[in-house]
Amino acid sequence: MSLRPRPARWFELVVVRGEAMRAAASLAATGAMEVEALPGAPLHGASLTRSIARFRDLARRHGRYWPAVEVALSPLTRSPRPAVAAALRRLARWEREGEATIRLLQGFEAERDRLRLWQTVAGRLGASGVEVAGLLAAGPALAVEVALLPAVAARLGVARPILTLQVALDSSRTAVVLVGPPPEVAREVSRLVELRGRLLTRLAWPGGEELVGWLAARLATVEGEIERAYVALFALAERLDLAAALADLTTVAWFVERVGPVAATPLFLRLTGWTSDPAALVRALEWDGVAALLTLPQPPAGVRPPSLLVNPPWVRPFELFAQALGTPGEGEVDPSPLLAVVVPLLFGYMFGDVGQGLVLAALGIGLWRRGPVARLLAAGGVAAALFGLLFGSLFCRVDLLSPLWLHPLDQPIALLVFPIVAAVLLLAGGLCLAGLEAVWVGEGGRWLREEGALLFVYLGLAGGIAFRPLFGLAVVGALYHLAVALLAGGGAGAAVALGRLVEEGQRLGVNTLSFARVGAFALAHAGLASVVVTLAHAAGPLAPLVWVVGNAAVIVLEGLIVSIQTTRLVLFEFFARFLRGEGRPFQPLTPPTLAEVGHGG
Question: Is this prediction's pTM over 0.85?
């Protein structure tokens, strides 16, 4: 664990051209490699790029009819150009031999969609009291058409002498039934089509049968035909070993599109970039038996290394706060280890209740694998439960536990003052972190001359409220700051320094008072708990229900509000002094594994 981000290491890998893609896939599987290509030409030139474009075009047209493919961890050991050509020939043969089945399948899929729409329309019309079968059987003197329109457009009027009925299919579509003389209906349909509508193709309903039953039977028949067509296409794919062709094409496409141009000679290729763990790259190459030379030279001039945050697993969820403003650069502090303490304390103070805190902790643990937000919720819940012990609150009840510190509603002044004292220490720590950053970049002396005095002024003014002799520290800091400015820039420099000192002091004062909201929200939480208990007592036999619903409402409402306030205090009050987010995030290359080509049936 370190407060200073670490720059990624530059690596260069020299590998035989035929092993290039296997080497890249092996390194990508570590999650520790980011590619940054040096100037060079694409590995196999424009012809390979055109072949990949042809593959992508085929995937757009027919990919949904291909089987899903898992790309192996050690892909494509032969030369890419002939492998891609052979794979494309196999795809072309599959397309040629399956063309009739594909056309048949597409026709059945279109009919299935049409039948489902008619089922919905018939159901909605039937529920409105309309005899759909009678409409469809209308004679030649009357035309009946159904148009589908966006919900907004469907509210437009329809010209007479046409009868209309509008039925909402869902929140975005409306079916408009048009009944009238054929010429007028045809004109109105044309007008509705211009309003982004489309005509629902007439059913091939033979009549004489019950419409709903016929629709269900026909839909079952069509779905059976669709299934048989997919089986035929997959059988053809298996006979032609289409999966292997798709795996080869996917691997080459991944290399061309994700790894990009690389420096190459007729025999060798040089892959370059950044790594967060050089040892992991070495292990991957040895494990997969890739013959390659890996070196870690100094990065070329003009390239910017990514920043790596070096934290143990229990701190990593708190990196989310710093990354909200950007990635800390090499000369910036990574505040995540500090936030692992500060954030739970802020949250827990404002949400102090043993029972509710344990509920939040259990929810966070249950959703642990969903991401860092769930882990933050678990940490905040544990802190809330601990503060609940200090406040003597258990599921809004304050008569079940003796407080280890105070009851919020009994001692509101102490509850409000304590966060402000903590804020002084926290913001002073932020000023110290700014000084640490200045030392890292060789500007420690400048920080002492220009900004160090602000720390003493701030601590002296804040501490002097409780212990008056500390005001002297503020006076000494201010005089030191003005003296340094006077020696460096004369009277004008001293005036500017005084103005800056006043301005920064005011900002620090406002930042400090912002933390009063921590105590205010802790007091508000206690007030809500008191309301829940009062309502439960007044509810008589419904008291348990009111108590449960009240606690649930407090958990949801206060949990959201407290989370927002904690985030705001960290981002805009604490980070303001030292975090700029000028680093570049590390973006590891993902391997071509579990790549699904097509969608299957």
Answer: no
